[in-house]
Specification:
The complex is a heterodimer of chains A (220) and B (238). With 220 residues, chain A is an all-alpha fold. Chain A has a single domain, classed as MetI-like (MetI-like fold, Orthogonal Bundle), CATH 1.10.3720. In chain A, α1 runs antiparallel to α6 and α7 runs antiparallel to α8. The longest helix of chain A is centred in the first third of the chain and has 40 residues. The two termini of chain B are 32 Å apart. Chain B has 2 domains: 143 residues, Rossmann fold; 64 residues. Chain B is built from 9 helices and 10 strands. Chain B has a 6-stranded mixed beta sheet with strand order 6-7-8-3-9-10, with helices on both faces. In chain B, α6 links the parallel β7 and β8. The chains are: A mainly alpha (220), B alpha/beta (238). Chains A and B meet through α5, α6 and α8 of A and β6 and α3 of B.
Chain lengths: 220, 238
């Protein structure tokens, strides 16, 4: 048989260690991406032209350069700035900053979907800009963009493999380590694919459930 | 008493409001009547700081209103033409959210206010329904209830009957009349001529940003010929 399941079983603990690191990168990157992405999206809808230009420049730079380069830049630049941190946090920060640019555009489209009339109504009722964003705009925007955000999180999990270039022992790097020991690349990469698939499918299912729940709340 | 004095507003060098001046006493209804684009809605939007004012003043009981912070004072409530309800919230939450977050009511206080208003406006059985699921008439009543909950002294209604059938229009007219009877200063911008018959109000007929004719609804209904501009509009000849 092409796939050696006994080999996969033997090396599964090593691969699961890598999977744990992959999940840490994805979760950390997702948190940074969501928080920073939301702030960037709000800044892009602000009245300040300077702020809008700054955010747009950030988005253009991040979207226009490969994530691999961004991770390497973070790896070499952060220590120059006096931040001597481990490779795992560097990877999380770099991937989070990259994700924020994409998430900001997703959330911005959600914000645009909220009618200006509701924003004006909030204003006449005495809501501040922050309160309007917190209670009126973002809950509706997030509901609209949930499927797109789900896709972004899935991309994040897969992109976490790029962290291996700075020596982070995430799933794909652990896989290559196992291949170097066993020379059975087909079985190992098959196992890696299954593990990635399990994680991305779980995210898809969770997002679908959340979407269903939110739309049920909105339409019942 | 609300005093609007020499209010002027430009949009791209075009004069939208031209020295608009009037007084509205507590318990009175001012009906701004006229074709679309004559500045009726702009006047109401200025009062709610949704548009800036180029010149003129607004005063309540002889005290000048600072329009830049007017929304923080909750003196003026606004009911929009398209209702502008918070669609992701239930009917009850549309009322309780501003009370709790802006006026800092407790959960119990806000729910008590909401339940009283929803009962008054016949929406109590819809309290857990999402706002987007309501009919036009129900949305209009909820929009009024949401504005009233903040206890304003002045309420502005922009085209309150434009999306309603004649029966619902009568219901809304009764509601507007009741708001005035409750002591509010009521400002209505509308091109719905049926309101002249249904409201006991002062009609301010507007054309090109100016008030060009004024009449009480009673005077007009008794002697239409005395008010040729309003009559022409009512007859569809303006």
């Amino acid at each position: 048989m092409i796939i050696d399941f006994s080999l996969i079983a033997d090396y599964l603990p090593i691969l699961l260690q890598g999977l744990l690191v992959t999940l840490q990168i994805a979760a950390g990157g997702c948190c940074i991406g969501l928080i920073l992405g939301t702030l960037l999206a709000l800044a892009q809808t602000s009245d300040s032209r300077v702020l809008r230009c700054l955010v747009m420049s950030y988005v253009i730079v991040i979207r226009g350069t490969p994530m691999l380069i961004q991770i390497l830049c973070a790896f070499y630049i952060l220590p120059q700035l006096g931040l001597h941190i481990d490779t795992l946090p560097i990877a999380i920060i770099a991937i989070g900053l990259n994700s924020a640019a994409y998430i900001s555009q997703i959330i911005k489209s959600g914000i645009s979907s909220v009618s200006t009339g509701q924003i004006e109504a909030a204003q006449t009722l005495g809501f501040s800009s922050f309160e309007t964003a917190r209670y009126i705009i973002l809950p509706q925007a997030l509901q609209t963009v949930l499927p797109a955000l789900g896709n972004e999180f899935i991309t994040l999990v897969k992109d976490s493999a790029l962290a291996s270039v700075i020596g982070v022992n995430e799933l794909s790097k652990q896989g290559r380590f196992v291949v170097s020991k066993t020379y059975d690349s087909i079985s190992v990469f098959f196992a890696l694919a299954i593990l990635y698939l399990l994680v991305t499918s779980t995210i898809s299912l969770l997002v679908a459930q959340l979407e269903k729940r939110m739309s049920r709340n909105a339409y019942d | 008493m609300l005093t609007i004095k020499n209010v002027t507003k430009f949009f791209n060098n075009k004069k939208i409001l031209n020295n608009v001046s009037l007084h509205v006493k507590k318990g009175e209804i001012a009906l701004f009547l006229g074709s679309s684009g004559v500045g009726k809605s702009t006047l109401l939007r200025i009062m709610n700081n949704l548009e800036t004012i180029d010149s003129g003043t607004l005063a309540l009981n002889d005290k000048e209103l600072n329009l830049e912070v007017i929304n923080k004072t909750h003196l003026i409530g606004m009911v929009f033409q398209h209702f502008n309800l918070f669609e992701h919230l239930t009917v009850e939450k549309n009322i309780t959210l501003p009370l709790e977050k802006i006026l800092k009511y407790t959960h119990e206080q806000s729910h008590k206010v909401a339940e009283n208003l929803l009962t008054l406006y016949g929406l109590f059985d819809k309290k857990n329904t999402y706002a987007r699921r309501l009919s036009g008439g129900q949305k209009q009543r909820l929009a009024i209830a949401r504005a009233i909950a903040m206890k304003p002294e002045i309420i502005c209604l922009d085209e309150p009957t434009s999306a309603l059938d004649p029966i619902l229009t009568s219901h809304v007219a009764n509601t507007i009349q009741q708001l005035a009877a409750d002591g509010l200063i009521v400002l209505v911008a509308s091109h719905d001529i049926s309101l002249i018959k249904k409201l006991n109000c002062t009609i301010y007929f507007m054309s090109n940003g100016s008030i060009v004719e004024t009449a009480s609804s009673q005077e007009f209904n008794n002697n239409e010929a005395q008010f040729p501009l309003i009559k022409k509009f009512v007859d569809g000849q303006a």
